[in-house]
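Write out the 3D structure for:
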Amino acid sequence: MTLVGVLSDTHDDVRLAVAATKMLVERGARLIVHLGDIVSPFTLAAIAGALPGDVGLRAVYGNNCGEKMRLREVAEASGAVISDPPVELELDGRRILLVHGWGSAEVTRRVVEALATGGSWDAVLYGHTHEVDYRYVRGVLLLNPGEASGVLTGRATAALLDTETLRAWILEVPRG
């Protein structure tokens, strides 16, 4: 079993991004996945710096990530990987697709639902909408951890995913 910490939409709130990362590691995450809109290289550096050496970081760019080259340099220097979505991971024999999102929240939801119904992946993880989404579509896990920044909804959240059972827990990010 691998526990994966899932973040999205940190939007340069370094304090909450680090708090979310530390919370996920404390709960047993062996890999942190960021689903986009880290935004600036300094935020990625803070997230990577909050990780112990035995916990990996895999991220995708979001629509607000402007300095892609510098983000990639920061990722490489810290042993992390960031790239354009979609990204396919295989963990514990599970095929997991990582994306950010496209256009409006409604379009993003339709696209990820279509990806889930295709049956090519066991889980489709996405961000962009800033809204928590945890459900199964034709047996495929569809997971959006919500926004770790709390910038639009006022609720800062992250998720912990068990790759063996494909069960997830939505967690409130500590603000104190």
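Helices lie at 14-26, 41-49, 68-78, 105-117.
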